[in-house]
Amino acid sequence: MWRLLSRLFNNNNLLLTHSGKQWKKSFSSSTERKLNVAVIGGGRIGQVHMETLSFHTPLAKPVMIVDFIEKVAKSTAEKFGVAKYSTDFKDVLKDPSIEAVWICSPSSQHSEQIKALAAAGKHIFCEKPLAITLKEAEEVTLAVEKAKVKMMLAFQRRFDPNFAKAKQCIQAGAVGDVYAVHLISRDPAPPPIEYIQNSGGIHNDMAIHDFDIARFMTGSECEEIVAYGACRVDPKIASEGNDIDTAITLLKFKNGAFCTIDNCRQSPSGYDQRVEVFGSKGLVRFGNNFPNNVFIEDGHSIRRSDLPFNFFMDRYTEAYRNETKEFVKCVLENKEPPTSGRDGTAAMAMAIAAKKSFLEKRPVKLSEINP
User: Fold this and answer.
1) What is the pLDDT of residue 370?
2) What letters, b where the CB count within 10 A reaches 16 and e where it falls short, cover 26-40?
């Protein structure tokens, strides 16, 4: 039986107290303005963002879902209680009630959609990449800046609590001057060969996140890259995918910091994501996330009961939600988003330089990479 029930309204939170325990439920005041949004693309990542916008972001209101497959668009609208659906993204342009749009469509469509949305005055949240080529990425970034709309690129790792806290520690001076960053990023298993054939290679579709995090952690721009790699996991990745599956990349930054990136398409222990930043005063580091914190201790060893998360959507669930909430906040409060088209073009240029270094077997300066 309830011994004590108190309702305290503060900063739009409902605080329930029962026998000394507290639960807090966020809610939005009926008078608080909500951001009308649309999502283009009803695939895996589109579903993730639609769920966050519908159930975890009180200040956002999804009003349209677009997917070129009508069945997907309709079922997604029904699933999340969205009033309108379409198979043509241009219907978003025609709807004056829509203020911001989440682009979760195939990569080849991003450039066209960004330009059209910017011209229509819509704010844009875009899944990576901005475009297929560096030239297109530069063009869409300029188009957004010219239209004076906000655009945020979805480098979700920046919004993961571990990455965000490490960056906070660095900014607070915990490591002093950054000397070296070491990033480990390994997938549980290789993607299908068909995906690899159209991905642009391991530096473009996998290491692109690490290139962004290297800039994020060092607070500097990369000036030179040396890349090594081989096909160690599956020979078909080389013979049919024309790619490598294991890569080591060394980055040199303008502030003097170095970074090593260790990528592999397969990790027997699961999704492997580890970071260390070392500097003049010390280091910050974090390891993998696990489904639980249970350990087994017996006469043989002390060990965890489970392997790390085996899927990036599970590992970065909180990060995906945080980035979506942040962009809604930026639009409503008229603030600049923490990631932009400039971050996207910088990471893309680094990916191009890494691939060039691997193919030409030499260090490549970023000044060599032009749109």
Assistant:
1) 86
2) eeeeeeeebbbbbbb
